[in-house]
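Please, structure for the following, as tokens.
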Amino acid sequence: MTRTTAFRRFLPTGTAGATGRQRRSADRLDEVRSRHPKLWQALVADTRITCAYRGERFHFRSSADALCQCLRLMAVSDAFLAQAAYRLKARLQALGVPGLPRLAHRAAMVIGQVAIGDLVVVAPGLYLLHGQVAIDGFTEIGPGTLIAPFVTIGSCHGSVGGAIIGSGVSVGTGAVLRNVRVGDGARIGANAVIIEDVPAGATATGVPATMRPRPSVPLVTEA
């Protein structure tokens, strides 16, 4: 019996519309779990980008070297240890393991106040600056993203929609992003409230946020 089939056994017998929405959510949940990256792939990418942002060596000589650096970061950074617990939770859910994902989720919350929901897909290569983040809803986060503390990303009340975050995005301390799209290389300022899409390369600041496009570089021509 698949997870979706098991879920449907306990659906309420109310309106057909509500049941249909719940079934679609169950189908989408299975699809989300199938997209979680492999544990080792994600941990190595997370280790590499974390080392790069910390100004440390991020070119690994071998898998053993990568593992040593990963374990070192777990020992010195609560945020990275919590992030590793999230990666373990996501992979266990993708494999259909019962019970243990909840323990890994609780561990991430206790260690670094990192609460990343079951509907979130995080590409390999995430840097959590200091933990203390909440990400929920059908949210997707691209590779090379930096997230500062006290950031909230994801669904609004009464909706399970989420944000789509591109690659190389930087999200500043205290920012709030709901059901929006953020383009590649965008910058979200500290305490910004994002209520509309952010174009690639733009900088968003303020409450509500306003956008400043990436400055153009003038062409240099020979006289």
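The longest strand covers residues 161-165. Residues 86 and 105 are 6 Å apart (CA to CA).
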